[in-house]
Amino acid sequence: MVRPPVTLLWLNAATETDFVAAVGSVFEGSPRFAARAWALRPFQSIEHLHSTLRAVVERAPEAEQFALIRAHPDLAGKAAIAGDLTEDSRREQSSAGLNRLTPEQFATFTRLNAAYRERFDFPFIICVREHTRESILTSFETRLTHDLAEERATALEEICKIARLRLFDAVRATGEEGSA
Question: Contact 98/75 with Cβ under 8 angstroms?
Fold first, then answer.
């Protein structure tokens, strides 16, 4: 069976299963948040849908927020090398040139990923589509000085930025417009 194009009208009328299949991937490996948002339909705009998804994440128990953060891959990490990234993550990391690192740059990312995981016990997350390799490295250095609460909040903010872009990609691919 062929699924109709994903439009706001379609999302508002979709079954929970279809809704989650259409937008559940905006949060890496965490479709439960889309399932919760489905119950809050109808959405007036894609921005409204995004703000609802964001609110669902913000209201989630801390353990679920940490699980969402930990569902993300390291930047230029083992999953990228092994080809095990989701299509969205592969495309996003490629957009910042993380698939074309020199050996020295790769070593720097590996070192920073390890230091970050050691400090916070979750991967460094940044909306790479808004950055260059250089600005990502600068952010790594800055964010390593954060405390856990500050960094958890920053990681969730970055996840919501990623989700917003992914959501607009999914809907715009069908020609539906919304404010970005």
Answer: yes
pLDDT in tens, 41-97: 999 999 999 999 999 999 999 999 999 999 987 776 554 554 555 666 667 666 666
> One of 48, 50, 72, 146 is an active-site residue; which one?
72
Q: What is the pLDDT of residue 75?
A: 76
Q: Which helix (H) or strand (E) element contains residue 19?
A: helix 16-23
Q: What pTM does this model have?
A: 0.85
Domains contained in the chain, CATH given: 8-67+166-172 (no CATH), 74-160 (1.10.3330.10)
Distances (CA, A) of 11 to 14, 37, 64: 5, 11, 25
Pair 26, 11: CB distance under 8 Å: no
Instruction: Return the percent helix, strand and coil in the chain, to nearest 5.
Output: 65, 0, 35
- Does 42 sit behind a cis peptide bond, omega within 30 degrees of 0 on the bond before it? yes
Tens-digit pLDDT profile for residues 104-118: 888 898 899 999 999
Indicate if 72 belongs to the active site.
yes
